[in-house]
Amino acid sequence: MTRVQGCPLCDETGGRLVHDATKFRVIHAVEAGFPAFYRVVWKEHVAEWSELSSADRSLCMDAVAVVEQSLRDALAPAKINLAALGNMVPHLHWHVIARFDWDTRFPAPVWAPAQRERDAAREAAVEAALPAVERDMVQRLSSRSF
Ligand SMILES: [Zn+2]
Predict the structure, then answer these.
(1) Model-wide pTM > 0.90
(2) pLDDT digits over 74-128, tens only?
(3) What is the 18 CA–ligand 1 centroid distance (Å)?
(4) Is there a contact between 85 and 97 (Cβ–Cβ < 8 Å)?
(5) Where are the domains of the chain?
(6) In CATH terms, is domain 8-142 a member of 3.40.190.290?
């Protein structure tokens, strides 16, 4: 497996590990104001989506869809945001972010300037639901041939 020394996603998990599959892992990312922020990190060091084979793209997108579905079912967010930027860390990873109409940047991207104050009570309620969300997510991921 290609690893690049000094790449944060080759050297480290990149967040709290939720699920470890053969070709990818799912992590929970600590991003202030966004309690349900996950990443699907491809284990092989590739920078661009088109570097993956068609089969691997399909597998990775299925994993992203499973994470998304678990978030939708448990949290009923206003929207799920999917993004693969890699400008800061050019190691393929998909952001899967549950967005709420009360979050600090909604409806703008999470990287936009804040539009309102954080809602600590609502954030805490989402955080409290995450263990159950993640149990469901892992169960769904484990039941697939990833
Ligand atoms: Zn890497």
Answers:
(1) yes
(2) 999 999 999 999 999 999 999 999 999 999 999 999 999 999 999 999 999 999 9
(3) 19
(4) no
(5) 8-142
(6) no
